[in-house]
Specification:
This protein has about 475 residues and is an alpha/beta fold. The chain has three domains: about 240 residues, 4-Layer Sandwich (Metallo-beta-lactamase, Chain A); about 100 residues, Oxidized Rhodanese, domain 1 (3-Layer(aba) Sandwich); about 100 residues, Rhodanese-like domain (Oxidized Rhodanese, domain 1). About 25% of the residues lie in helices and about 20% in strands. It is built from 14 helices and 24 strands. It has a six-stranded mixed sheet, covered by helices on one side. Strands 7-8-9-10-11-12 form a six-stranded mixed sheet. A five-stranded parallel sheet has the order 13-18-17-14-16. The longest helix has 16 residues. The radius of gyration is 24 Å and the shape is globular.
């Protein structure tokens, strides 16, 4: 059997190519949108991709099923519960379906819970093997966690109902597999599809039975309470991607570079409503950038965080280090953000001689922030970490607005007050501070090194959940 996992760290996303060398028949499961790697590996190993199997309609990335189907003629396959829900032809297969690639057998098991149509794929190297090679669990079972059941609340499906489906799927479909069965999920640590995902990208049913908090012996009601509590704020673009993955749409051309634009063209596009997205590191952005631009550095979770502060319906102009534009374009395309008008030709060198359109960012050390808090009682400190992080320690009096909620909660904040943004290490706070400045906040700084630096400097921290009311 040919088996390969592809792990995309910036989205914590795992996809798979499974094939039978005796017949050359293969499938891809949960592909990312840029599909060249699957095509190259299939060609190298003499495989023909005949199916693209999706474990569910994903919300955290735009899947590559349409790109692969166009390139290979493969059938797009979902579980039976997806029937009638896609705007393109699909093969909706019932629970228990066995797909033979030759000697290799794939068994489809309906495992609703994260979504109603979720499936898992049991892989056997030879049909009838008592111990499967592994199971591809999609977003049903992760290493150290299970899929969150609350993402479809805005689509009319309750978290309680899905959590109960998830409990039954885990206990009736996955925990009934032999302990030796390998577990291959669709996501790892950093994904917002769960709250406790491991950095490991594979495990076994037995190991998860022993160590996964959500699989500990408990009643269905207890499970519902445990898995619905403390989930991180869902990224702003999730609802858009969940919808787009059900629709026909234009295909990605992963080889075509963005158009090159003059500074005057960029400024005109910005004046017309385009977002200028600066992809440089925080320190470089702070030293000087186009006024009103938003900073999301390519060195981090670029696509996810861009999707938190840029609307899916907004035009985008890229500014970054020369040569980085294709990476930025493809990473944005992975979440369906295709409205990239172009890139500033020559990068920052194009505006160094134009001080009238350039500004610097204010970044404070821990000591400077402590002094400013003493001197300015009206100072507004905004903590953009998730609630679970904040509970471990925060700056007294700070307001918690998780980054995915920032743009939608601007009305709760005062743009006229001096403002300092904090996160864990400084990456998210630079994003948030630039987004606030672009939305009219007059005096915005962010904390260098984030709460890590604040703690190391011995500054006061409080546990918000232990603070007295009022």
């Amino acid at each position: 059997m040919f088996f390969r996992q592809y792990y995309l760290g910036c989205l914590s996303h795992a996809s798979y190519l499974v094939g039978d060398p005796t017949t050359g028949r293969a499938v891809v499961i949960d592909p990312q949108r840029d599909v060249a790697q699957y095509l190259a590996d299939a060609e190298e190993h003499g495989l023909t991709i005949e199916r693209v199997i999706e474990t569910h309609f994903h919300a955290d990335f735009l899947s590559g099923h349409l790109e692969l189907a166009k390139a290979t003629g493969a059938k797009i396959t979902y579980g039976e519960a997806a029937a009638g829900k896609a705007g393109y032809p699909i093969d909706a297969v019932p629970h228990g379906t066995r797909l033979l690639l030759g000697e290799v057998e794939l068994e489809v098991r309906a495992t609703p819970g994260h979504t109603p149509e979720s499936i898992s794929i049991v892989i056997r190297e030879r049909a009838g093997d008592p111990i499967p090679y592994g199971v591809l669990t999609g977003d049903t079972l992760f290493i150290g966690d299970v899929g969150r059941p609350d993402l479809l609340a805005s689509f009319g499906v309750t978290a309680d109902d899905l959590a109960r489906m998830l409990y039954r799927s885990l206990h009736e479909q996955l925990l009934t597999l032999p302990d030796e069965t390998r577990v291959f999920p669709a996501h790892g640590a950093g994904s917002a599809c769960g709250k406790n995902l491991s950095t490991e990208t594979e495990s076994t049913i037995g190991a998860q039975r022993r160590s996964n908090y959500a699989l500990a012996p408990m009643s269905e009601d207890q499970f519902v309470a445990v898995v619905t509590e403390g989930q991180p704020a869902a990224p702003l673009y999730f609802a858009f991607d969940a919808t787009m993955n059900k629709q026909d749409r234009p295909l990605l051309d992963e080889e075509r570079p963005p158009a090159r634009l003059t500074l005057d063209e960029v400024l005109a596009m910005q004046a017309a409503g385009a977002v200028v997205l600066d992809t440089r590191a925080e320190a470089d952005f702070a030293a000087g950038h186009l006024r009103g631009s938003v900073n999301v550095g390519l060195g981090g979770r670029f696509a996810e965080y861009s999707g938190n502060v840029v609307g899916h319906d907004q035009d985008i102009v890229l500014v970054g280090d020369p040569g980085s534009e294709m990476e930025a374009k493809v990473r944005l395309a992975r979440i369906g953000f295709d409205r990239v008008l172009g890139v500033l030709d020559e990068g920052p060198a194009a505006f160094v001689a134009r001080p009238d359109v350039v500004e610097a960012s204010s970044r404070l050390t821990s000591l400077e922030l402590a002094e400013r808090r003493q001197a300015l009682p009206e100072l507004q400190v905004i903590d953009v970490r998730n609630q679970g992080e904040v509970r471990l320690g925060a700056i007294r009096g700070s307001v918690n607005v998780p980054l995915p909620q920032l743009v939608s909660r601007l009305a709760e904040l005062d743009p006229a007050r001096p403002t300092v943004v904090v996160c864990a290490g400084g990456y998210r706070s630079s994003i948030a501070a630039s987004a606030l400045a672009a939305n009219g906040f007059l005096d915005v700084s962010d904390l260098l090194g984030g709460m890590d630096a604040w703690s190391l400097a011995g500054q006061e921290m409080v546990r918000p959940d232990l603070e007295p009311a009022g």
